[in-house]
Design a protein that fits this description.
With 124 residues, the chain is α+β, with helices and mostly antiparallel strands. Helix content is 19%, strand content 19%. It has one domain (6-92). It is built from 2 helices and 4 strands, in the order H-E-E-H-E-E. The strands form 2 sheets. It has a two-stranded antiparallel sheet with strand order 1-2. Strands 3-4 form a two-stranded antiparallel sheet. A hairpin with a 2-residue loop joins strand 3 (81-85) and strand 4. The structure holds zinc ion. Zinc ion (ZN) binds next to loops.
Amino acid sequence: MTKYDNLYWLDNLPTGWAQLYRDLLEDLAADGISVRVAEAKEKFGSLRIYLQPGTPEAKAYIAAAELRSKATCQHCGDAGELLVRDHLYATLCPVHGQGFSKPSGEPVVSLNIRFLDLSGEGEV
Ligand SMILES: [Zn+2]
């Protein structure tokens, strides 16, 4: 198996998400959408899939799979939720989530961007 096979990325994913990832590839194939996965990984307890090159028609499928991963234990595939321990985020079921606790917020860096109107009329 090489980097150019989509299933290569199974090795890079938590075992609990293997089925989810296989389902995604099958759904895409069933609808005649050909994709090449550039990278698939776990980040902040969520599945992340990057395609190469961008395949716009696959976006909704990817988004749905990523959403599903947020409710699927990454160890066993049972229903799970986002948990945290020592700044490590993971989506886990009650069994595998022992010792973890619920995060106080989403593990994302948020930026507040304000647009300035440089014409001298103040902020937009
Ligand atoms: Zn589990």
